[in-house]
């Protein structure tokens, strides 16, 4: 019997070479590191559980096919590499693997895969590391970014594993006063004194009369300038071609080279570098990077990769967030999107629909009824964490017509966000919900931001001469995503879908986008979308600076927020190892994500610690009277450890504006709870103890200095420490080892002189130290063939 492993937010590396080998999911993390330094990444697994007689399911082959009138779907074929399963070794060999080294704007970033589950396929053993300690070693000169990431600073705090710690050590200096923002229509582009935070790149004809598009481009540009306080630049393609020429068959490089020049040379007073880009025109009017490429070993498929236009460093990491209005016709395709984007923010339509999320689960008729349901179940719970309601449309046993009619009815009722999880193709979803059905949706100005987590629903390159799809099916003449955004009075205000086939990982990205919006409170659509573009073939139809939050919808109100799920709540030392008479510090952040400052208005903040039955065992109240728009304040207090009972799990809740003193746009996001607070015992401590060590092996006791008292000898990362009973380092210690992966120390009198030596293995060397920390003569020595037994 095979066992298949999954856990929340797990990731399966896409390499085809892994097919047939044990399927071991990874955790993807992004780590901010300094420039100009060689980075060595090492990981150590702790609290490892070993399971015997477990055969890990082999990685299946994923194949693509069409069904249900052209819907593209994938299915798995059992495949096993019998030779690999005879190997008597632990796989993967390393717990951590660097898969990308690039830059997000000014910040160098490593993408690292961590494997908490490994196995020995020959022995049928599985090793589960309950904890992983990740170590970084820098060689050479380290240059740390101190410019920051502009409007993406908060996103980086939530996205990068160590960004908060990096910013503590290398803070961003305060900016000087900024000049007033402007709207400019530059025709001379290679001018370093030009300034832009937001680029609008448009086909020439959309700025020419008699079409109304020029009017709405100008209105949107001035709204972004006045409302978002950004420098906006509108640029025609003819001017780009003139100053950044490229071969006819590679016209997309003109756009890329222009954006790259702007990024490095123009002024960006508000964002550090240009941060947003709206492309107005289809794939050939504002050229996209069109090329053939296999997907997971199949195809090839024709790509339209706008992400390559904004990848300034050419490292696979987009440096700007972007969106596209993929139209050719000014009147019926471009004008409606421009106008309703402007109206959505400038004259917002309010109502309960703005507090509603929609989860959609389709299925292939050959699949079980609950197929794809898990992604809906992961997405919808994010909405209630901030007081929003949810609806769902799930295709179980009902007919395709019943499912489609329910879908039309639910879309017509209006919702802020919708997430579809299932199969698709350029003109339809499952159950024959094709482009004709979109025009039966009558949601008026309650226009949805729609995430289509399916294959091929946003291929705006559908009319490329080399594209082979018959786009006359359904309403015809446009792809599925385009049909959603083009209606002026209905449909979607933005559509996020894929330009080619995808895999299960794309569905996981949809869940993460919901989390970034609702939990992390990234209400700018381009901020939630941008990380999705790191690992998928996603495209955004719409304005990347579109604001779904109350900052724009309710400009006359503040909006207090404690980010849900305990996102900004933490407990400090000595938790989780307190004495009974200790005080445990609590840190929590209160945000005002609304448009209006809170000035001279007192409101109460309350922190409550409760047991599993809801009984409050401790509470503390404080007051604030000032909090600026889009600002936050961090509060700290302490509670006595004595209120905790060892072995009992508590939860800590922070509530802002307890007595409803502030008239705000929404109160459903004023509370957040951190769960899982638990101690195993109270820990009496000697003076000088405890010591906070990042990772250590099991310590050894030995009297090294001959004073009759034992010292504590312990390996800590790349160092070997010796502590005296009062907690101080013994003279001559610590000493440096050769690797983060080192053994526990052993103490023995090797030369029978009455003074013990300390022995430790640190890849690839065996170290021996005298009692005073001096290396024993002849050591360290490299251990031959150490990889064979390590």
TrEMBL record:
| SUPFAM superfamilies linked | Caspase-like, Integrin alpha N-terminal domain
Provide the species name. candidate division WOR-3 bacterium
Q: What sequence ranges are listed for the domain Gingipain?
A: 198-499
Q: Which Pfam families match?
A: FG-GAP_3, Peptidase_C25, Propeptide_C25
Name the record gives this protein: Gingipain domain-containing protein
Q: Which GO terms describe its molecular function?
A: cysteine-type endopeptidase activity
Q: Tell me a GO biological process for this protein.
A: proteolysis
The residue ranges of the Gingipain propeptide domain are: 20-168
Superkingdom, taxonomy of origin: Bacteria
Write down the Gene3D superfamilies for this protein, in alphabetical order. 2.60.40.3800, 3.40.50.1460, Gingipain r, domain 1 (3.40.50.10390), Immunoglobulins (2.60.40.10)
Sorted alphabetically, the keyword list is: Signal
InterPro entries for this protein:
Caspase-like_dom_sf, FG-GAP, Gingipain, Gingipain_N_sf, Gingipain_propep_sf, Ig-like_fold, Integrin_alpha_N, Propeptide_C25
């Amino acid at each position: 019997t095979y066992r298949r492993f999954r856990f929340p937010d797990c990731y399966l590396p896409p390499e085809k070479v892994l097919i047939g080998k044990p399927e071991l999911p990874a955790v993807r993390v992004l780590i901010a590191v300094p420039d100009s330094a060689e980075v060595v990444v090492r990981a150590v697994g702790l609290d490892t559980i070993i399971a015997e007689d477990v055969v890990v399911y082999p990685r299946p082959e994923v194949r693509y096919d069409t069904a249900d009138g052209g819907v593209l779907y994938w299915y798995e074929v059992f495949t096993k590499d019998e030779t690999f399963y005879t190997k008597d070794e632990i796989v993967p060999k390393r717990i951590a693997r660097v898969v990308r080294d690039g830059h997000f704007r000014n910040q160098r970033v490593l993408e690292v895969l961590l494997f908490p589950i490994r196995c020995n396929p020959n022995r049928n053993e599985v090793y589960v590391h309950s904890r992983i300690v990740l170590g970084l070693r820098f060689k050479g000169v380290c240059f740390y970014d101190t410019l920051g990431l502009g409007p993406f600073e908060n996103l980086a705090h939530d996205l990068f594993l160590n960004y908060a710690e990096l910013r503590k050590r290398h803070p961003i200096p305060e900016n000087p006063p900024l000049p007033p923002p402007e709207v400019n229509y530059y025709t001379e582009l290679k001018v370093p004194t030009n300034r832009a935070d937001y680029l609008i790149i448009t086909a020439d004809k959309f700025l020419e009369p008699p079409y109304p598009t020029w009017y709405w481009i100008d209105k949107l540009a001035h709204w972004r300038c006045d409302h978002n306080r950004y420098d906006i630049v509108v640029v025609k393609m003819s001017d780009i071609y003139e100053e950044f020429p490229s071969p006819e068959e590679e016209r997309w490089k003109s756009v890329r080279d222009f954006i790259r020049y702007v990024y490095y040379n123009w002024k960006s007073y508000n964002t550090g570098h240009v941060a947003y880009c709206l492309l107005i025109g289809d794939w050939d009017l504002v050229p996209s990077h069109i090329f053939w490429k296999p997907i997971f070993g199949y195809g090839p498929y024709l790509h339209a990769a706008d992400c390559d236009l904004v990848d300034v460093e050419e490292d696979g990491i987009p440096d700007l967030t972007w969106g596209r209005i993929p139209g050719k016709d000014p009147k019926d395709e471009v004008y409606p999107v421009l106008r309703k984007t402007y109206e959505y923010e400038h004259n917002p339509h309010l109502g309960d629909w703005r507090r509603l999320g929609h989860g959609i689960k389709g299925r292939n008729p050959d699949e079980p009824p609950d197929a794809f349901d898990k992604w809906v179940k992961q997405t919808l719970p994010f909405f209630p964490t901030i007081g929003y309601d949810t609806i769902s449309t799930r295709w179980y046993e009902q007919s395709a017509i019943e499912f489609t009619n329910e879908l039309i009815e639910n879309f017509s009722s209006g919702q802020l966000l919708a997430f579809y999880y299932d199969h698709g193709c350029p003109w339809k979803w499952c159950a024959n919900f094709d482009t004709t059905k979109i025009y039966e949706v009558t949601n008026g100005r309650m226009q949805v931001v729609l995430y289509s987590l399916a294959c091929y629903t946003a291929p705006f390159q559908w009319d490329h001469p080399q594209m082979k799809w018959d786009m006359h099916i359904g309403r015809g003449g446009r792809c599925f995503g385009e049909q959603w955004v083009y209606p002026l009075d209905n449909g979607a205000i933005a559509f996020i879908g894929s330009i080619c086939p995808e895999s299960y990982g794309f569905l996981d990205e949809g869940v993460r986008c919901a989390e970034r919006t609702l939990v992390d409170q990234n209400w700018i659509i381009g901020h939630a979308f941008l990380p999705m573009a790191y690992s998928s073939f996603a495209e955004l139809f719409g304005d990347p600076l579109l604001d779904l939050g109350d900052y724009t919808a309710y400009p006359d109100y503040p909006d207090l927020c404690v980010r849900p799920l305990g996102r900004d709540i933490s407990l400090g030392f000595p938790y989780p190892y307190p004495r009974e008479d200790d005080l445990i510090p609590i840190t929590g952040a209160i945000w005002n994500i609304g448009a209006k400052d809170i000035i001279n208005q007192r409101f109460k903040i309350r922190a409550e610690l409760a047991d599993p039955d809801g009984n409050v065992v401790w509470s503390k109240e404080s007051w604030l009277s000032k909090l600026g728009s889009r600002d936050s304040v961090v509060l700290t207090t302490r509670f006595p450890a004595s209120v905790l009972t060892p072995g009992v799990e508590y939860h800590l809740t922070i509530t802002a504006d307890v007595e409803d003193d502030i008239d705000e746009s929404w109160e459903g996001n004023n509370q957040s709870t951190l769960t899982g607070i638990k101690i195993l015992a109270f820990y009496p401590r000697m003076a000088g103890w405890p010591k906070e060590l990042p990772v250590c092996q099991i310590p050894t006791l030995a009297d090294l200095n001959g004073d009759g008292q034992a010292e504590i000898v312990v390996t800590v990362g790349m160092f070997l420490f010796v502590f005296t009973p009062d907690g101080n380092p013994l003279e001559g210690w610590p000493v440096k080892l050769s690797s983060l992966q080192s053994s526990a120390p052993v103490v023995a009198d090797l030369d029978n002189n009455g003074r013990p030596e300390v022995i430790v293995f640190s890849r690839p060397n065996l170290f021996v130290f005298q009692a005073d920390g001096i290396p024993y003569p002849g050591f360290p020595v490299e251990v031959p063939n150490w990889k064979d037994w390590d």
